[in-house]
Amino acid sequence: MEDLFAGEIESFVSSHDWSQTPLGAAETWSSELKAAVQILVTEIDRVKTSPDRHNPSPEKIQQRYDTLLESIDQGLSIAEMLFDPEGRPVDYRFLEVNSLFEPMTGLKQVIGKTILEVVPDLEDFWVETYGKVVLTGKSVQFEHQAIALNRWYEVNAFPIDAPLEFRFGVLFTDITDRHLSEERIRLFQERLEISLGAGDVGVWELDLITNNAWRSIEYDRIFGYDRLLPAWTYEMFLSHVISEDRARVDREFQQSIETQTSWNMECRIRRAKGEIRWIWTKSRTEYNDRGEPVRMRGVVRDISDLKHTLVALQQSEERYRHLVELIPQLVWTADHEGLVLDVNQRWLTFTGLSTPEEAKNYGLKPFIHPDDVEVLGDCWKVCQQMGIPLQAEGRIRQHDDGVYRWYLHQAIPLKDDRGKVIKWFGTGTDIEEQKQLEQQYANLLQKIQERNQELDQFSYIVSHDLKAPLRAIANLTAWLEDDLLDIIPPENQQQLQLMRSRVNRMEELINGLLNYARIGREDIPLDMVSVAELLADIIDSLAPPPSFTVEISSDMPTFRTKRVMLNQVLANLIGNAIKHHDRRDGKVEISVQEYPEFYEFVISDDGRGIDPKQQTRIFDIFQTLEGQDKQSTGIGLTIVKKIVETEGGKIQLKSEVGKGSTFSFTWSR
């Protein structure tokens, strides 16, 4: 081909004035265009034998020229550059195109048109680049995207010299599919590197023939390098493996190649700055047709954190096992379906089984008391279905003596992030002694109830037997006064009145004793009580003298409580303050203080006060401050104290002689 333009071929080329064609003079053709002309060799050989080979007609020359254009397996266009008055390239007009131009560009009938007429929004890059080719006379090769055409091209642009014309040729190939494939591959590689980097995974490939390795950047980072080293070999890898693991690692590496199995191992390495880390690597070896190893590809990952977690998990498992064996409960674990996975030694000893495997096979049911199987089974099913903790009591048989003992069975579900039960952790606590105590308590309570019934009957009998003669005496004195009023001397009338008051006092004392005995033994319902209204009723029933003042604070509460009990306490304290006051114009103040769990009621008076020496005994039964006071039984404050304490409160007194008294008591909310 070096003598392409020699002999007859030269005659062929020189037989036409190419300068008048878009290709320009032959001596100015670029190497690319000359290469294209080579395609005409076969045609020239044929022409040699043609009758008109010495004097080709213009039609023949045009035919050969067209053949030249169509023989090129790339898109081809020949154009002239257009300039503005300042000499800047602004557009170009198509002169010739081959048949591949249209399918590669999607542009039709472009001959004689400018590129901006055909593609108005074409990027400036194309005109500017081809303008440089024309102005500099230098060819260019490049790949670029034609955004307006939505295609990628590989382009070879070259100048074509012609008098007074600025012509250039473009050989191009549509590489859109190739470019998209390359872009997809590039994006895939980027995403893969990001994924591997996020997972601390390095990728490597070792050429077993040259011993050179390709690695990802994450690979070198795992070994402590900030950037890829220029080279890497298997020996360099081994040098990072700590001496204690090195022989094993190399042996497993060689064995994987010899046995044609994957290399899967963990070891410790010393990083570039001396830090020791755990790594895991896995790879496979490729072999040629002769079975010779040629290449090994694999991944590597830093598993130091995982190793530390496993160590911590192992230590936690050991602590759990020690704790399980130390606690006095029977301990078991089960899967989400309730199948036993593990038990502690105490369980094995209690049931007489030898190993946890036996416990898995037996489960719990064979050891449960027949009367408790259904109850415990139903409870367990509900907890399993709803994924809620289990708590139930049931008897299980002890191996040593065959006796059934009461146990409190408890279990909690362990759930995953989605709330699904994956495991059950359960215990059994021996409550046999508690059950016996409960039975003893029940028996004792029954006896107490029986004694209370007997006491109630006794109280009724005593009340009836004591009140009957008192009523007879009261009636007798009333008859004597009615029948003999004019006869009985005043002194005897006074004695009869004293007798009747003492009889009334005795009856009140009997009633007080009965009330005292009943406190805490009767179920009294709770009512919604307005304390302000309750106090108004109490004061109205006590009917203090008109000159007596009773002040009630405005913040009295309304709450659910035992109306009868609270009424009795308030009526007694307010009644005492009025009854035992030394003046008819006395004053009583009633207030309340609210606390989170109780109210504190305060009843203060401005009476004579109580001597500190007597304050310690005022709550004792049958004690009065006025000796043989005709008005008092000495049991009222005793009843008040017992009611307050039975309801969970406390009562106290603050008083000084001559400065009045203050009773305060607490009452549960």
Describe the overall structure.
The structure is a single chain. The chain is elongated. A 5-stranded antiparallel β-sheet has the order 2-1-5-4-3. Strands 7-6-10-9-8 form a 5-stranded antiparallel β-sheet, sandwiched between helices. With 669 residues, the chain is of the alpha+beta class. It contains 21 helices and 22 strands. A hairpin with a 5-residue loop joins strand 21 (651-655) and strand 22 (661-668).
Topology overview:
Elements lengths: L6 H8 L16 H7 L3 H8 L9 H14 L3 E9 L5 E9 L3 H5 L9 H4 L5 H13 L3 E7 L4 E12 L2 E10 L1 H23 L2 E7 L5 E3 L1 H6 L11 H7 L2 H16 L4 E8 L5 E12 L5 E10 L1 H23 L3 E6 L4 E4 L1 H7 L4 H7 L10 H14 L3 E8 L6 E12 L5 E10 L1 H53 L5 H29 L8 E4 H12 L6 E4 L5 E4 L1 H17 L7 E8 L3 E8 L6 H4 L20 H11 L4 E5 L5 E8 L1
Parallel strand pairs: 17-19
Antiparallel strand pairs: 1-2, 1-5, 3-4, 4-5, 6-7, 6-10, 8-9, 9-10, 11-12, 11-15, 13-14, 14-15, 16-18, 19-20, 20-22, 21-22
Helix pairs in contact: 16-17, 18-19, 19-21
Gist of the model:
With 669 residues, the chain is α+β, with helices and mostly antiparallel strands. Helices cover 43% and strands 25% of the residues.
Structural class: alpha+beta
Q: Describe the sheet with the most strands.
A: 5 strands, antiparallel
Mass-distribution shape: elongated
Calculate the terminal CA-CA distance, rounded to whole Å.
Answer: 116 Å
E-strand count: 22
Mean pLDDT: 82
Number of helices: 21
As a whole number of angstroms, the C-alpha radius of gyration is 57 Å
Strand proportion, as a percent range, falls in 25-35%
Helix content: 40-55%
Low-confidence blocks of residues: 1-9, 38-49
Which strands sit side by side, in order, in the main sheet?
Answer: 2-1-5-4-3
